[in-house]
Specification:
The complex is a heterodimer of chains A (291) and B (435). With 291 residues, chain A is mostly helical. Chain A has helices at residues 3-34, 41-59, 63-84, 93-115, 141-163, 165-175, 177-182, 187-212, 221-234, 238-258, 261-278; strands spanning 131-134, 137-140. In chain B, strand 3, helix 4 and strand 4 form a beta-alpha-beta unit. The chains are: A mainly alpha (291), B alpha/beta (435). Chain B: It holds the Pfam family Peripla_BP_5.
Amino acid sequence: MDLGSLLNALILGVSIASIWLIAALGLTIIYGTAGVINMAHGEFIMLGAYSSYMLQFYLGLPYLLCLPASFVIVALVGLALERGLIRYLYNRPLDTLLATYGVSLVLMQGVRLIFGSDPKYLAVPEMFQSNVMLGSASISAFRIVVLGITAFLVFALWLLFYKTRFGVQVRAVMQNKEMAASFGINSGRIYMMTFALGAGLAGVAGALFGVLAIVLPTMGASYVVQAFLMVVVGGGSLAGSVVASGVTGEMQSVFAFFTNDTFARFIIFVLIVVFLRFRPQGLFAQAGARR
Amino acid sequence: MQFTRRNLLKTTAAASAALAAPHLWLPTASEAWGATLKKGEPIKVGLLFSLTGSLAVPEEDSTLVMQYAIEEINKAGGVAGVPIEPVIVDAKSDFAVYSEKAKELILREKVIALFGCYTSASRKAILPTVMQRDHLLYYPTCYEGAECTQNTICTGPLANQHSQDLIPFMVQQFGKRVFFVGSNYVWPKESNKNAKVWLQKAGGELLGEEYIPLGSSEFGPVLNKIREAKPDFIFSTVVGASDIAFHKQFKQEGFKADKMPIASLTTGEIETRAMGAEFGAGHFLSAPYFQSLDNPTNNKFVENFLKSKYGKNGTTHYNMEETYTSAYVFKAGFEKAAAAVGFENVTPRAIRDHSGGVRVEDNVSPEGLIWIDENNFNCWLKPKIGQCQADGTFKIVKAADSHVAPDPYSIYPDAGVCTKDGLKAPDGKIRKSVI
């Protein structure tokens, strides 16, 4: 073991963190704002990957344009779902859990009926298919793309939540829905917008994961557990999710470097359980938020 | 019924009496399959594959190719002059459902044989039912061995047939230093044990062995270790969606197939198409069948299958071919049994007992002649090594000169030898139904 390989592990840790974070962003927004435990989050990710596949395969859209397009498509699906179903269930958390789980099955089987169950292929520009060397450290170009897009989205969300009028309204509704409503904020509309936003973010993540791994109707399931962990450990706030995925991503990479991948996961899950025993509200729980 | 103390006592007593006499409801071998065949009625067989869920990718293809094979056999006059009728169920990638559907097919549908399963876990889930009813399972894919039942016939390669040629070939072509990567379950671990034996014989050196959870798509840490270890080639038993992620990230992390190729037991034509040929090109696969095999039987099989209504997925691969030949192994075994005991008296066990040594000839089997071992009822076949080309097809770089014997206990010589009647231990004792 030398410093170069440890450095490699640390850099990889940042990359793993960015993958977990981008998977968790949409869920953070939806859970943090409306308190909805969205079991269909993994399927939103899957829809993002299939949207990119469709746009590329049928319309020949270049990959980089597929990313924002997937955001829009999945956001619209999220919007329809919120208007058609979720909005009737805001005061019944257990029912939203079951309803969104049902939706996830419907989406998965629906995609399977339309596209079949064989994996699909997403093409990316040649420049993303290799790696970048920085001294002794090496990282794949596509991981840098994922990292860059995650950083951009986090920054954009921070601007949206803390520097715009919409953000002030969202935070007001998060803290106290009735009080916010009495000040003239249309909380139904805020919920609708944040749900669509969260779904759209999952769509972007899916378009990226389709390149990193595979496009399959069941692909969402492998990311959704990680995403939920980040949200729960982070406490449902944006900063919480950023810190939670940063720490666990680094731990995954470093532990895997010293032991192996399976054992690294085992340690992380144990640590998370211990952490939640002593801090069930997560890292940065929103003060005054009623759950 | 009121839940009183007296009632409770009565029921418990009745229940324990029933438990004390289990032979009352267990079938004896002869009556296990409670049906008889009638001339003129179709022969029912069960297709027990997953059409939904995570295993649907390979298993849906198995169902399709099985239907194709049955249609082909029926067109040519059926089995012993009688058509086959497939009963298709969906095991939903859930091991509990496999077991439940196996019972349904055997008890209610009264099929005479089951064709099914892809993972070892699902096979192990249904085998107790199959053995209890003295029924018959055609397991049409590769597996790790170390089983000796009197109710299974396998048409895929065992672990010993898989790595016997591949490991020495890779060591010779690329060098001695190897890194093992696999999915974290029974088949990769057993396959790696086998590969180690062959690696030692070839004088190779094992640099590391890593397992990734099934379905995981993060190969960064493993690839970092591989970068560190600098092996000459990688031996992979990663399966399913993870396998595709592995090949993609391999290239994305800057590894080159011509410098450090991956020698896989599973990365075939479907995987290569799903990942994109540029990620698969240059890597190696050991299998008895490749779509690109150039012989008249295979050319005809590929052409006819792809234009049939079952060829919608656009490719053939080793797993489908092994499933296809299993239908002909069934036909041959059934006809042999019918000739020996009479059509009406054919039972699942009779088919199995007469299947030892049955052959699927060159003009039927796309991979070339295969036959069933008379002792362990696995398949004699010729393993081949293919290298993936830039267009996603495989070029055969080495084919075994002669057929390789299946040996389910090749790495466990102490366990004994699998014979027709059970596992014969070194001390001469025979144990039936070892799983």
